[in-house]
Write a structure and sequence with these properties.
The complex is a heterotrimer of chains A (about 500), B (about 325) and C (about 325). Chain A has about 500 residues and is α/β, with parallel strands linked by helices. Chain A is built from 16 helices and 18 strands. In chain A, helix 3 runs antiparallel to helix 5 and helix 5 runs parallel beside helix 6. The radius of gyration of chain A is 23 Å and the shape is globular. The termini of chain A are far apart. Chain C has about 325 residues and is α/β, with parallel strands linked by helices. The termini of chain C are far apart. The chains are: A alpha/beta (about 500), B alpha/beta (about 325), C alpha/beta (about 325). At the B-C interface, helix 2, helix 9, helix 10 and helix 11 of B face loops of C. Strand 17 of chain A pairs parallel with strand 10 of chain C.
Chain lengths: ~500, ~325, ~325
Amino acid sequence: MTKKNKKNKAADASTAVAGGAAAAATVRAAPARSSAFEYAPAPESRAVVDIAPSYGLFIDGEFTEAADGRVFKTVSPATEEVLSEIAQAGEADVDRAVKAAGKAFASWSALPGAERAKYLFRIARIIQERSRELAVLETLDNGKPIKETRDADLPLVAAHFFYYAGWADKLEHAGYGTSPRPLGVAGQVIPWNFPLLMLAWKIAPALATGNTVVLKPAETTPLSALFFADVCRQAGLPRGVVNILPGYGDAGAALVAHPDVNKVAFTGSTAVGKQIARTVAGTRKKVTLELGGKGANIVFDDAPIDQAVEGIVNGIFFNQGQVCCAGSRLLVQESIHDELLDSLKRRLSTLRLGDPLDKNTDIGAINSAEQLARITSLVEQGEAEGAERWSAPCELPENGYWFAPTLFTGVTQAHTVARDEIFGPVLSVLTFRTPDEAVAKANNTPYGLSAGIWTEKGSRILAVANKLRAGVVWSNTFNKFDPTSPFGGYKESGFGREGGRHGLEAYLDV
Amino acid sequence: MSSTAPTSPQPSPAPERGGAPAALSDVTASDSTLRRFLHGLPGVDAVGLEARAASLGTRSIKTTAKAYAIDLAISMVDLTTLEGADTPGKVRALGAKAVRPDPSDRTAPATAAVCVYPDMVATAKEAVAGSTVKVASVATAFPAGRASLAVKLADVREAVAAGADEIDMVIDRGAFLAGNYRKVFDEITAVKEACGASARLKVIFETGELSTYDNIRRASWLGMLAGADFIKTSTGKVAVNATPANTLLMLEAVRDFRAQTGVQVGVKPAGGIRTTKDAIKFLVLVNETVGEDWLDNHWFRFGASSLLNDLLMQRQKLATGRYSGPDYVTVD
Amino acid sequence: MSEKTDKNVQAGKAATADTAGGTEQRRLSVFKTYKLYVGGKFPRSESGRVFEVTDSGGNWLANAPLSSRKDARDAVVAARKAFGGWAGATAYNRGQVLYRVAEMLEGRREQFASEVADAEGLSQAQAAAQVDAAVDRWVWYAGWTDKIAQIVGGGNPVAGPFFNLSSPEPTGVVAVLAPQESSFLGLVSVLAPVIATGNTAVVVASEKAPLPALSLGEVLATSDVPGGVVNILSGRTAEIAAPLAAHQDVNAIDLAGADEALAKELEIAAADNLKRVLRPQPVDNWAATPGADRMTAFLETKTVWHPTGSLGASGSAY
């Protein structure tokens, strides 16, 4: 090989890509780029994770079958390969888990905070130790790139447990009274877009404050929660403090409605959030809801353009756009529209879509066939309504669920793609003329989760941030998360905050 | 995905004499228009820039891609010796190494150039005679640049007369930081003129002294407007030299400059790049920021000395499967 | 006092005790027409209807406007219109305005004591204590306006080169069902925390004792409270609350004045646009010092991130 000249090597590289992918039964990475410098496949090893052929429900410290014996399959969205068969929780299982959690509550809540803290610190450390394993697992089950699970999800998961661990013995200093009390059993339902991170957001504050937990992961991504059950066992967490119930919406509904659940925490769609709000009406259950969004990412003409382009890309293509706080509406000042769009398209053309386990993949698979169908349908609607579609020139793998990074120009506030949450890699581009108009358009939505502002003018950042009706505002950055930073929405994006001191309130009787 | 740059004009040669390309000639008409233009360039957010550079640094370049990158990197090295203790013997050895970096493997490509002080140009020319290796010479009172224009031009002319193919000049950072952009511009155009038709001009900003990314972007445009064939980060003589972030910023500048003027300008990070891993990170920056038009030693260089041996050791490792050691590469 | 006396006369109570000497022609007092308070104005109900308000003994006190769904809608429009200016006012300014309410109320203590006594069947002394507590409550919240952000907001030490600040912001238009029993102190205790933080309010007064609430409108109108910041409706709580709970431009609802069945029904309706709901909680003593909970119930937390980074590129390396 070393005898070949540069050109031949380049040819060699591209052959290797095709050949290697054909040999691997996983994903055919299919870059359409024709650069001389083509990256050879760099797959993260699957060997680091050992997925059992089947998993049970985790109730009262034991893995157990569902009462009615039902099971469902979880697949890798990148290949449609069945990863494992999972026990499917039903109403009887929910009842059993809630009872186990209720039983565990007495002793768990009576533990000195410092002892609870040490359990959480143990969990944080074990997650750090097993972080590569969990990252690969998450990538397999969810379809998101290993780059993200390795560099974003897992570090944040561990950080979240570490952060709330420290609160467990300091609650009387949190500003919620001198002896704040836990609520009891927390029923928690989480989505598939950040399976383990959402678990951490839910479980860490719940345990730190002395509650016990019954958590239902999403039906398409149950594995990391079940591995977390094993982390709890390694940490020696008392039985029943954490119970994991993989299942579908019916199990979630039963959990929310269970009379012995004292606290409901949900992250997911606004439609389901509203249903939950109705279910708990008239009860004493405390509720926090973290729901949908249609975040505006506002780019002014004096923005740091190259960083803004990165921020736009990060805002809508991080996790394939399957992010509640995605910057799915780009509001660009009309005077720089063409220039910015040129830069953006050029940048999108360098995104690498393909095997999520490849360390160089930027865009992974859509989580499920159902989600892909929803994205496809909304994009078709956008085209039918006359918005102009542009998709990055990339070849999609044959198996699995994929959608090319896409943007719509010529979008107005009236277009469906400007109003409905697509929850996919689809950006709607709108223009504005003045800061007032930008704010008015940004706020013109029933949602209010996130927003972005790009300008080099400090006073404008503060003025615009002040006017935006959104729970998280990123200025000259986007999609940044931290356990110390409260997260949550205005309006129909839900209520309550997760993260930081604010995140404790949802789990305390205040 | 193929590159679909909205405007990708064919690279055209920079003007032979110094001065702005026609598309931007009004910008350099006066001190005030130049200042307005440079200060009107989009700002740079430091955190975002560094995050992007770091993110590209996580690319995993393996097997065939790595082999390609290593050879490409070797071919882009400006093998440099810029010591007060330089002697003809040292420069001859360097020349030999540039022409044949790995005596045990003739397939290893030659480096792009050797880079020496002006008084060593003639020696260097002899050492690389008959090869593709160019001779670059630092000039203009390198590295401080604290001399009169006449002295700087004499420095340049001497190097060119001795056969230098490339001139690496330093800008007057003092003038730049004092806001005297026109003075910097005029010096570059004068040096460009002194280079004549035969020598390509690399303009060194000493980014570590310019300090801010906004300054680096302004300096990049200033250099390109004045006719630089290459823009180069640093002398290697200060604390902070080439970094992925400042190189990414300069790559964005040459990308945007070509889009506006049709003129392609090269980029040379220099100083502090010592390992294959580092070099590959820079090549990834090039690949994903400006694309393959710059993946060639006519448009991208590494100013380095110890980097070459690490590249060679990694190359041997790829060829043999064994890790190499310093005894298996030459010390020159 | 004369007004009360006249009412007592009207209600058939013995009037002789108050008439000097009993021989002079007693002056016929002027009755007050109780009106709604919406958008800074005092309209009658658009329905044109009223209902009889009686004292605890069943004696007629006045006719109060019977608000309709449309009155509720108008009040929401007024509250929304006022929201931007009130939320955007400085906290110091809001504090001054709330303090001004206390000042104005202080001057009308006797009127309110008398209305409260009638409304709740309290002795004059008991009623006066309620009014005094209500005045003090305005003062308490006046002092909170520029402190709550420091209590519930703050900088967050994120693990990266970012400045990260969380601040409380008003949630928007809040529908307030005033407590049924405590017609004035209860009302002030639920209203003041809502507007102290910059929300605007649509208040449904105690159904059986709306007069102190309607009179409060007169105080607010002369206290620099911008029109629309507080809107006060009287009528059947269940009738007015239903459209408010379902209204898509109302951001939150305080169910203090709803019974269990109504509260559940309204909470379900409120889910349609995910209103923040403050469920009714038993209150033994409205005079007890309130915490911050009634303010935080109607606050959003906004967290703003901004890169900091190093001062210069020379500090960075890889």
